[in-house]
Amino acid sequence: MYANSAADAISPPYIITTIATYDFNESQGRRYVTYEVEVQLPELIFGDVVDRKRWVERKRYNDFVALLQSLAKQFHDLPPLPPKQFFNTFSEAFLETRREALDVWLRRVLTDRSVVVSSDVKNFMKLPFMVSNHLKKIFRPEAVLPTFSSQQE
Fold first, then answer.
1. Helices (H) and strands (E) in the chain, counts
2. pLDDT in tens for each of the 153 residues of the chain?
3. Sign of the four-CA dihedral 98, 123, 75, 11
4. Which of these, 48, 53, 115, 127, is most buried using a 10 Å CB contact count?
5. Angle 10-135-67 (CA atoms, 0-180°, nearest 5)?
6. At what angle do helices 61-72 and 92-109 cross, to 10 degrees?
7. If you write DSSP's letter for every residue of 29-72 in order, what string do you get?
């Protein structure tokens, strides 16, 4: 009996992310904050598919907003982002709270296989073609493994 797909043997996280820190930046006289998103590819899933299994992307809060808006066109019931704040946006307490909330949000969103293989996530994380292609192969519906039912019929 072919009850499960090959992907059922793989559980989240499919891509490991950590938002460990944030930095203050300035451009054209305007101050802004970027969050350091560390992306790590689990060895179990990617093995020797790619050499580089860890990198860092810097993202602004608006990048997360754009990702959510793009994903919301395809997926329903996505968790909300932490709210935007208009006062004290550079306070250490606020930024640390937001960093933690963004970290939880991103990890939660990336537990969904369909979201992980989306072009929006690929672009947000700057996933190499080999990585996104490998994920799509793993999660295609026809990738099945033979399994035997524990119940005898």
1. 6, 5
2. 333 444 555 677 889 999 999 999 999 999 999 999 999 998 878 888 788 889 999 999 999 999 999 999 999 899 999 988 887 789 999 999 999 999 999 999 999 988 999 999 999 999 998 888 888 888 775 544 333 333 333
3. negative
4. 127
5. 110
6. 30
7. TEEEEEEEEEEE--HHHHTTS-S--EEEEEE-HHHHHHHHHHHH
